[in-house]
Design brief:
Layout (H helix, E strand, L loop, with lengths): L2 H20 L6 H22 L7 H22 L4 H21 L2
Helix pairs in contact: 1-2, 1-3, 2-4, 3-4
Length: 106
């Protein structure tokens, strides 16, 4: 996975989160937590787009592999609204992995 693939993957997650948020009560704790995570992912995506990753080494590939795996899980969880807590956990994993990638960027 390269940088453009990662940016597109995050964009797809954000779209799914937007759809999930529309189906939840905005006053619920789940909506608030999911929205906060969505905002954080959006900020991370912006930081990634603003940076230039100079390398596509095995460390980067491994980090993006974790994100791809988590995204596959997220796709399944978002489709089942009753599993929103599991989706929040997965999004947190994606966000943590993105933090690791952003630390590699100058």
């Amino acid at each position: 996975m390269n940088q453009a693939d990662l940016v597109n993957l995050i964009a797809n997650i954000l779209t799914q989160l937007d759809n999930a948020l529309m189906n939840l009560d905005p006053s619920s704790a789940s909506w608030q937590q999911l929205y906060a995570l969505r905002k954080h992912l959006d900020d991370q995506q912006r930081a990634l787009v603003a940076s230039i990753i100079q390398t596509n080494d095995p460390e980067f590939a491994a980090a993006t592999g974790v994100i791809q795996t988590a995204t596959n899980q997220l796709n399944q969880q978002i489709n089942a609204q009753n599993k929103i807590d599991a989706a929040i956990k997965t999004i947190s994993q994606v966000s943590a992995s993105l933090d690791q990638i952003l630390k590699m960027v100058p």
